[in-house]
Design a protein that fits this description.
The chain has no helices and 16 strands. The protein has 188 residues and is mainly β. The strands form three sheets. It has a six-stranded antiparallel β-sheet, with no helix packed on it. It has a five-stranded antiparallel β-sheet with strand order 9-8-7-10-11, with no helix packed on it.
């Protein structure tokens, strides 16, 4: 299916120059002079090689048809993650790179979406947010609680993030899996 280059989003799968690519990053750039263009970082599905490509906003690209599967995260190591297909309970082991930067927020039992092209896994998408416990953060100093101010914190999975000053150790917080930013205090 042909789509406009300006509609390409991370996670999309496209065909370009006879190869299949997974889009990692996409940004529309409007220079001071000349027309706008789309800067796309993408990974070759078969070889794993990454490249950057520029498309004019008026260009069209072929978007691949994808089979989506819901899977449950079981376990992982530095290189691979193991998932279980929710329909047929088959275990799938895929490279951690298919999940990209959000892979650091994988939790046991987390439901993820796996995209398959011709039966081969090409990307893993996490939910938009996940709940974590604050393992370590600085104590609040009286008078330092102005709204909009943030302090560093370490989550129970070891990832560093910035949280509002009223958050303390042991609090449960909701974090955006895309960039690791604080969303809200958990209601759990």
């Amino acid at each position: 299916m042909k789509v406009g280059a300006n509609t390409i989003r991370p996670g999309n799968l496209i065909e370009h120059n006879g190869k299949q690519w997974a889009v990692l990053k996409s940004q529309i750039i409007t220079p001071g002079k000349g027309g706008a263009f789309v800067q796309v970082e993408m990974r070759d599905i078969k070889s794993g090689n990454k490249t950057n490509e520029r498309f004019r906003t008026a260009d069209t690209v072929e978007r691949l048809t994808v089979d989506e599967r819901t899977c449950t995260f079981l376990f992982g190591d530095d290189d691979n993650i193991t998932l279980m297909d929710s329909e047929n309970f088959e275990q799938i082991t895929v490279p951690r790179d298919l999940a990209g930067e959000p892979a650091r927020f994988l939790l046991d039992g987390m439901e993820v979406t796996v995209d398959l092209v011709e039966g081969k896994p090409v990307s893993v998408a996490l939910p938009d947010s996940a709940t974590f416990t604050i393992k370590e953060t600085e104590a609040v100093v009286k008078g330092q609680t102005a709204s909009g101010s943030y302090k560093p914190a370490i989550l129970d999975n070891g990832v560093r993030t910035m949280v509002p000053t009223h958050i303390k150790e042991g609090d449960r917080v909701v974090i955006a899996t895309v960039d690791g930013s604080y969303l809200e205090r958990s209601k759990e």
